[in-house]
Amino acid sequence: MKKHYKEEPWSIVEEGFHPEMQMSSESIFSLGNGRMGQRANFEEGYSGETLQGNYIAGVYYPDKTRVGWWKNGYPEYFAKVLNAANWIIIQPEIEGEKLDLATAQVSNFRRELDMRAGTLKRVFTAKLKNGAELDVESIRFMSMADDETAAIKYTIKSRNYSGKLKIAAAIDGDIVNQDSNYDEKFWAEVSKQTWAHGSELTMKTKKLDFHVSTAQQIVLTKNGDELDLSSVEASTEKYVENVFDISIAQGDEIAVLKYASNVSSLNYSLSELSSKSIEAASRAKEIGFNEMLQRHAENWRNRWANNDIIIEGDVAAQQAIRFNIFQLSQTYTGADDRLNIGPKGFTGEKYGGSTYWDTEAYCLPFYMLTAGNDVAKKLLLYRYKQLDKAIQNAGKLGFTDGAALYPMVTMNGEECHNEWEITFEEIHRNGAIAFAIKNYIDHSGDQNYLKEGGLEVLLGISRFWAQRVNWSKLREKYVMLGVTGPNEYENNVNNNWYTNYIAKWTLEYTRDAAKACMSDDRFWSDFVAKTNFKEDELSTWSDISSKMYQPKLDGTNIFLQQDGFLDKVDLTVDDLPASERPINQNWSWDRILRSIFIKQADVLQGMYFFEDHFDEATIRDNFLYYEPRTVHESSLSPCVHAVLASKLGMDEKAYEMYLRTARLDLDDYNHEADEGLHITSMAGTWMAVVEGFGGKRVVDGRLSFSPRLPKEWDSFKFSILYRESTVVLEVDQDKVKISNQSGESMAVDVYGTTYEIAGRDSVDVNRKR
Amino acid sequence: MKKHYKEEPWSIVEEGFHPEMQMSSESIFSLGNGRMGQRANFEEGYSGETLQGNYIAGVYYPDKTRVGWWKNGYPEYFAKVLNAANWIIIQPEIEGEKLDLATAQVSNFRRELDMRAGTLKRVFTAKLKNGAELDVESIRFMSMADDETAAIKYTIKSRNYSGKLKIAAAIDGDIVNQDSNYDEKFWAEVSKQTWAHGSELTMKTKKLDFHVSTAQQIVLTKNGDELDLSSVEASTEKYVENVFDISIAQGDEIAVLKYASNVSSLNYSLSELSSKSIEAASRAKEIGFNEMLQRHAENWRNRWANNDIIIEGDVAAQQAIRFNIFQLSQTYTGADDRLNIGPKGFTGEKYGGSTYWDTEAYCLPFYMLTAGNDVAKKLLLYRYKQLDKAIQNAGKLGFTDGAALYPMVTMNGEECHNEWEITFEEIHRNGAIAFAIKNYIDHSGDQNYLKEGGLEVLLGISRFWAQRVNWSKLREKYVMLGVTGPNEYENNVNNNWYTNYIAKWTLEYTRDAAKACMSDDRFWSDFVAKTNFKEDELSTWSDISSKMYQPKLDGTNIFLQQDGFLDKVDLTVDDLPASERPINQNWSWDRILRSIFIKQADVLQGMYFFEDHFDEATIRDNFLYYEPRTVHESSLSPCVHAVLASKLGMDEKAYEMYLRTARLDLDDYNHEADEGLHITSMAGTWMAVVEGFGGKRVVDGRLSFSPRLPKEWDSFKFSILYRESTVVLEVDQDKVKISNQSGESMAVDVYGTTYEIAGRDSVDVNRKR
């Protein structure tokens, strides 16, 4: 664990130049606006260790994976996040020497991610080998208000040099993907153009034919006055630039204003792509840097008004939760229902494809309760639109009659992951997608969503479960063989309790949902015709769910993670030497599989989802059994434990788990921030505060809170959107305050007691210890 | 199943030109001599579908495999069989048109593999587009008498053409591997030279620096008289050739005699490599084609004298067993203890690395009983020499204190397979390596081998088993979690009966072997010092073996393949639609894993190895349970079932299984002969005759036979080497005859009765029905 960044409530600050931290800082200081994003690479060239990253949402590359041992049913490709053209390049040069922080003497280095305004600022002084000393300040952002555009203001002040300063503003499309199996480049040039103050480059991906056009418009000022300089226009393959020759004297300040745009064939026809990107860059230039920044900051202000969480008395926790919310907000905005939330967002290439079960299991609550039901519904519709492909996917594995298996990893509905134990067996993902429908309906009250697609998705998933189980004569129960549960440190096990349970639940929920929809004759006849639904499916589901095998430890409340779990050597995490952790970096796979150690919440994931199905003693017993055996080597694990620990009143454990999830990347717990941030687990951090410390639930259609205040905090406060109303929870040492910001009266439970809160009113309740 | 080749007792004959069968025939007609081998590619260029293949034993390529998802402990490379320089090229050309059977009109095509003499002969008439008609005959062999050399006699007779005939004799090193993940070429040129009647090319592998030098010496005759023609010498990168311009008239017969050699850096220093290969080619030329062929055929005659199996009344069975013996004999000769037996021998690239557990479990008996104890011992020493690497390999998986895990696939002792469920979990291979030591000692009587390395290997393996099991509190037994048994259609299962049993057996055998060696004080003290052996290891092993869990079906004799086996849907192979077989080409992996269907003998492999541990009722019950559930989708499966069926008197099942293993490639049961032959399973065919129909066993140090005669056969006869004596078994309708060809008296059991047979005498016993 490293404490590298200054703890500030609203910003992340790095002081001093730390090349050894550059890769991690590039991740931490990433920017995005839902449509595009980038790592915090330097504008000027950097010959030190760096991972270039410019990403366009929805643009990916299907890299071939057919290497080595193959299995029937594997996908032909792995969808890779695509590193796109590098548009930030601003390269100062003096007397033939390019500014490069790896070779210059650097001082006064500082960078700051201002989370309130969504900007990245960097200042430094560089002394070149030729003796020239420059003060540089760069500030940039990707506009949230106009998501095709971005801007950089790059200011150079000469401390001691007088003479020629050359500045190249470039777009470089000749980039490589770090995650390329074959060291192949994924982009080909389509067209390019340059003009006096700008240039444009259109590239296309070698497969799938995604086109992206990137443009820049450049304005130069000297000591605040705009320079009327023409550039030398230059281009080589996949590269365009405008080079300006400027005379400067000691003390002069040159500012380069770069207005940039990225547009893609997802949104425009190929013929208009270049003109649209030039148009966007020109639009930005016309608005001007300051006004553009103001509109961007305004957009962020509105977001923070809805989704900020205020923690007093613990600046590390305050900074962390804002960092998590900031990253989530700039990764997915809900503006485009073809997009989803990639595990690394716009901060790195790892994990490729964009959509995992993370979306439904972890991210949905955050977007639903901060951005609202419309955004949440877009995430649901994303899956509904891919139902046909999920049915095809199940078909590849031998399932029939409309059974649907959603992919483990996808960009467009097709599976693109190829480890058999995951691709074919980690099928609990289907359950999370069903659960998200329930979760959305519970929160939104939008029962009608069942008819808008929800029931079809539930049907496909239930048909899958009904075919995936088999009757065990031995047990006289339905069993589910050969699965991988959320705990991926067990593969191809029989009767993973969590998977069996969520399958059983899906069947019951689908049955009830179907029955609820039947009374709408017109809907129902269409539905039956479209899906070829047969009424006896209902009784099949009831039969399976009532006879589903659920492994349990005899004489206890403890559900067994899977068959054979008790054959393992019984150890707890305390028995593990520190030198062997994380075990996934120190143990061979077979040893991990044989061991009792649990990667992430598995039985406890079930306790979390279905908390209302179990009494507190059962949840407690399972928590006390599994928590000590869980190594939390998935970023998705501590948040679930944090929520459960809060529920059980284990405040210290909850706080420990909260910090672990909240500052995972800032403090780089797992030594991997360099490869990008854990975006989806950041939603888990939010969950740990809202559902954990806040104890937020929905009970019988009512919001409910059971707040716990960690002893490290003076108070905390958050607001959520519930059925179109904003509700604010404030918790301090003494009391819990619930404010209903809507115009209508609302019933809210606090610690199990229901309070009717009038519109624009609030209620105070004594805090429970 | 195809019946493409004529059934002849001593040869494989293809009549007519069948381009659609060319790839398969290239495999079937493969030649080799233990040191090098090749597919039956045409000498002249062929633009139709073909898989070029020239292989040098022991020369491989470590192709990178680090693609996609990685697991700790995986090897960095996969050792690939390397396609080496193509040295057979003889290219006739008339008036600018090259002879190419894909473009010429072909008639009278016939090829014959003469298994008695080890030659491949091909004749055809080709009419070129320009009208020239040629009768061509090619005969070639790779010398068994001088394994660095090979020769081709390629005869062209003009039927209608008079004029210039151009003949290029070439060596082409610019070849590709079919099995290349990255479409990369694996060879680089080192040097080359040409002279009037020959040329030489030295290539090296881009990794590991294997050098191979290939040379040719060319002699031309016209109507039987040697031509004194100089060639045009030519070379390009990785390519050398001698081109001869010959005047021919209608009716003239030109013969090209090509004497070739391959030598490698395995046997010579780099500086002498070129000269050694030229020397070898020149040596061949000096001896001359006819004499060279005679010495080669003589070598084969001697081999057949020891290893032939004669079957009367069933020419398909006769041809098949000889084909199997022929291929085994030309794949491995025992001349070099660094070599081993690859699953495809010299007939294709699939499966890469050379050594699997196939060697110990299937191949050892054939070589031991036909080539003798010295050759068998070389196979054992191969593993002994790799013990250090096996200990390192176990170390990578977290095992300590001298525990050894032999690799699943290897060229040099290092693991080079990377599927976790195989690499890390298919650990029963360790047991087969231990069992081979017992098998060798039982047959040879060479108890001393324990002290020559056997005990060290046993110790390493036993230490592995002792660490690999764990104590299950639940069962109060030792269990073995997370393994893959011989039936690879189950992965990561707990308590595979076969693996548990062979582990238990290894521990007991090692304990007894150690006790037997202890009395040799000098050996023992050296052994203890070298291996750091502790006496309490013996009691640990006894404890584990006495408390090893062995899953069993309650109230029966049936051992359960693994925990949870009875949860599966109970089906037999008869329930499988023909269209879904083989299931490995039609079902997704998860479906295969969940199903009850068994790829290859698993519990029955244990019944086969440890037949003497079980009464016949137990073997029968297990056979009757597992045989109907076995799909035999491994070539290693039917032979084991054949042996057991013979033992149980199920003659029809035994015969069915025999034919399936014996004619697997000739009749191409699995539609994959095009990619090479199943060399290691050919030893299983031999086993099916000798141990199956012959009922050969070793009982209390005596040879024992219990022959069964399939009703399709009139008689069969084979000889084996037992403790340096040749023993011949002849079985006909009425009697069983055992001949002792040694000078000493010998006790042999027939149907359970012991007969003392004097030297050079025989005994007749009535055949049991």
Quick synopsis:
Two copies of one chain form a homodimer. Helices cover 31% and strands 25% of the residues of chain A. With 769 residues, chain A is of the alpha+beta class.
Strand content bin of chain A: 25-35%
The pair of chains with the biggest contact is: A-B, 50 and 50 residues
The total strand number of chain A stands at: 32
Contiguous uncertain segments of 5+ residues of chain A:
none
Question: What composes the largest sheet of chain A?
Answer: 11 strands, antiparallel
Classify the helix fraction of chain A into a percent range.
Answer: 25-40%
Mean pLDDT of chain A: 95
* Helix count from the secondary structure assignment of chain A: 20
Structural class of chain A: alpha+beta
Radius of gyration of chain A: 27 Å
Q: Per the principal axes of the C-alpha atoms, what is the gross shape of chain A?
A: globular
**First-last Cα distance of chain A:** 31 Å
Report the oligomer.
homodimer
Please characterize this protein's 3D structure.
Two copies of one chain form a homodimer. With 769 residues, chain A is an alpha+beta fold. Helices cover 31% and strands 25% of the residues of chain A. Chain A contains 20 helices and 32 strands. In chain A, α5 runs antiparallel to α6. Chain A is globular. The two termini of chain A are 31 Å apart. At the A-B interface, β23, α14 and α15 of A face β23, α14 and α15 of B.
